[in-house]
Specification:
five-stranded antiparallel β-sheet, 3 helices, alpha+beta
């Protein structure tokens, strides 16, 4: 079993179901994305640049769906929040699968992918 699969299957519910659902949406929406296991969490890269990662922050009760260049999209996609005072990363916090607006998320994935494809680097701050 790949490390990223182990990561998902070792999560408690409801986090496991939420993460597997988000993973399926990402992989279906962006077939060019590369799933990696880095820093002990799943990352989704465009080329060699990280675009999004999934995490459960200590002391929090949600799955953190974090966009590396999220600061660029927070006005257009107000679902993105600045959690933990991160400079560039913005994220969607999911407590249930139903918290995810599927159509809005797919649109955000496309926009983030297009933006990252055009940028020279993922971390710009």
């Amino acid at each position: 079993m790949k490390p990223v699969d182990e990561y998902f299957f070792n999560q408690k519910e409801p986090y496991q179901s939420i993460m597997l659902y988000v993973r399926s949406v990402i992989l279906t929406t962006l077939p060019e994305v590369e799933e990696k296991y880095s820093y002990r969490i799943p990352f989704y890269n465009i080329g060699k640049k990280p675009m999004i990662y999934l995490n459960i922050l200590k002391g929090k009760d949600y799955v953190d769906v974090a966009f590396v260049q999220g600061i660029l999209f927070e006005r257009r996609f107000p679902v993105l929040k600045d959690d933990n005072k991160r400079k560039q990363v913005r994220s969607i916090q999911l407590r249930t699968i139903e918290d995810l607006d599927h159509e809005n998320f797919v649109e955000l994935l496309h926009e983030a992918s297009n933006s990252l494809s055009k940028s020279k680097k993922a971390w710009f701050i």
